[in-house]
Each structure stands twice: as structure tokens, then as C-alpha cells.
Specification:
The protein is an alpha/beta fold. The chain has a single domain (4-222), classed as TIM Barrel, CATH 3.20.20.70. It is 45% helix and 12% strand. Strands 1-8-7-6-5-4-3-2 form an eight-stranded parallel beta sheet. β7 (181-184), α8 (190-195) and β8 form a beta-alpha-beta unit. α1 (21-34) packs parallel to α2 (53-67), α10 (225-241) packs antiparallel against α12 (274-286) and α11 crosses α12. The mean pLDDT is 96.
């Protein structure tokens, strides 16, 4: 179920600051048409830390209804408190999510043994679980040895690995259950991770370049390494530009340029600087995401 390019959907907000369900539905439908292999609701790119529980559930309901089984819908359910993460995962299962992406608890820095218990408690709910390791956001690194242990636990099926360490990915793939899937959590390292055994990416850049990212992963899977590399190199400057300010600040500006959503963020986030907007425009034009105007 978990392969290819899965955009971590940005959350569009309306003028009153509420999630815009109409735009969200359009985004899901667009990603289906563009060849994305799934969508993630309420991930970090979706400003999940600012969303209320009712807002999360509403977005998931829209995504499940729009997807209609054509692509898997993954729900971000992790939290700093186990009870909250468990309750979110129960609701995600009830509302029709195909899997849950569970981030390591952020801020409180649990030990590896505590992380084992955290993920096991959530996996007991019965929804397929994708671990999410992103130490730059959480302050906690889910070590490869812990991932290997969790890979053998029922319902823990994959990891979104965003530590930036190819050594960690290699260690996981050497020791994990043979059916355990590694997905890139770092767009710029996706091709490198595919080369050592990852099956795809949960992506920020795919919000604005879904066809390019899904095609890159597909070409690699078909053995067209040069074709995949060509797309990677073309998209690389765009990916780097999307992270010159905290994600999803540049992404929202880029999506607004393409008419995908309004450039609105939840405070304390504010819109991207003029310098970042100019960089995004230049790199997106060069990559062909924004069509060049003939003079």
C-alpha cells in the first residue's frame, strides 16, 4: 500500500482562518489526477501542531470521501501524550483512514524504551502504523535499533525516515522485518534512499510537483535510473528553496503562485519574505512548474 510519492498535504485556510474544506477536496482530486500514490492528512506540512481535534477530523473526512479508495489516505495522529495519540488513531480508524503516521513525541524527549511502549500502544488499535522519525522537529531520534524491534510488531508496517542519515536507513533495511517499508521523509534524499531500498517518499515538494515526484519513483522502480536522476536534479533547487524558511511557509507561497490555495498560515507562522518568494518563482520557472512566458 505504501510506495511511490505521497504528498504531505498543506492545509488551506480561508479568510476567517479556518481550514477550507472545499479547497482541500480540490487538492485531493488534483493529486489523484496527477498520479500521487496517496495523501497524508495533518502532517507537519499541514500545520498539524496548530489544528484542533475537530479540524483534524473534518479534513480527514473530506480526504477519505474525495479519495474514494482510489489512493490511500494516511492520517497524522502522533502527539506528545500517548493517550492523545491513541485517541487520535482510534478516530482516524473510525473515520476511514487507511493508515496512521505517528510522529515521535515532541518536546519531552522520551527514552528508546519509552518510545517502544508509545508505538506499541498505538499499534494495538489495529490501524496500520507508519513510524515518523524527524528529530529536527521533535528533539528525539528514533534509533535504527528501536525501529528494527518495532518492525516485528503487528500493524507497524513502515517508517517515514527524516533524520537525514543514510546510515540509519541502511541499518534499518539490514535488520528490519522483510515486509517493513522505508519511505523518505527528506525530499532531497529521496533518490539516494531509493537506491538503498526505500519504496517512496512522503513529500513536501509533491504538493506543487506531484507528477514529477511520482514519475521519479516509478522510473527508478522500473530500472530507469538515469530518468529518475534527471527529475531529481531538475527538482532539487525547488526542494531546497521550499526549505529556506520553516516548512510550510515557502510551500504556501509556492502553492499560491500556482493557484492551488491562498497564502494563509496559522500564527505564529507568517507569509514568506519577498526574497524567498523571488527565489521560489525563479526555481519553479526553471523547473517548468511555472510555465515560462514567451517574449
Amino acid at each position: 500500500m505504501f510506495f511511490g510519492s505521497i504528498p504531505a498535504l498543506a492545509t488551506p485556510f480561508n479568510k476567517s482562518g479556518k481550514p477550507c474544506k472545499k479547497t482541500y477536496r480540490k487538492l485531493v482530486n488534483w493529486h489523484i489526477r496527477e498520479g500521487s500514490n496517496g495523501v497524508l492528512v495533518a502532517g507537519c506540512t499541514g500545520e498539524s501542531f496548530t489544528l484542533g481535534e475537530d479540524e483534524r477530523d473534518a479534513l480527514l473526512t473530506v480526504a477519505v470521501d474525495a479519495a474514494r479508495g482510489k489512493i490511500p489516505v494516511i492520517m497524522g495522529t502522533g502527539a506528545s501524550e500517548t493517550k492523545l495519540a491513541v485517541n487520535r488513531t482510534k478516530r482516524a480508524k473510525k473515520l476511514g483512514a487507511d493508515a496512521a503516521l505517528v510522529i515521535t513525541p515532541f518536546g519531552n524527549k522520551p527514552t528508546q524504551s519509552a518510545l517502544l511502549e508509545y508505538f506499541k500502544n498505538i499499534a494495538d488499535i489495529g490501524l496500520p502504523i507508519i513510524l515518523y522519525n524527524v528529530p529536527s522537529r521533535t528533539g528525539t531520534n528514533l534509533l535504527p535499533e528501536t525501529v528494527i524491534k518495532l518492525s516485528r510488531y503487528p500493524n507497524i508496517v513502515a517508517i517515514k525516515e527524516a533524520s537525514g542519515s543514510l546510515d540509519a536507513v541502511s541499518t534499518i533495511l539490514c535488520g528490519a522485518d522483510k515486509n517493513f517499508v522505508v519511505l523518505s521523509g527528506d525530499d532531497a534524499l529521496t533518490l539516494s534512499m531509493l537506491a538503498i531500498g526505500a519504496k517512496g517518499v512522503i513529500s513536501t515538494t509533491a504538493n506543487i510537483a506531484p507528477k514529477q515526484f511520482s514519475t521519479m519513483v516509478l522510473l527508478f522502480a522500473q530500472g530507469d535510473i538515469l530518468g529518475a536522476r534527471e527529475i531529481h536534479l531538475k527538482m532539487f533547487p525547488v526542494t531546497k528553496a521550499l526549505f529556506v524558511e520553516g516548512n510550510p511557509v515557502p510551500l504556501k507561497a509556492a502553492m499560491a503562485m500556482l493557484g492551488l490555495c491562498e497564502n494563509r498560515l496559522r500564527p505564529p507562522l507568517v507569509p514568506a519574505s519577498e526574497k524567498t518568494v523571488k527565489l521560489l518563482e525563479a526555481t519553479m520557472k526553471k523547473a517548468g512548474i511555472i510555465p515560462k512566458v514567451k517574449k
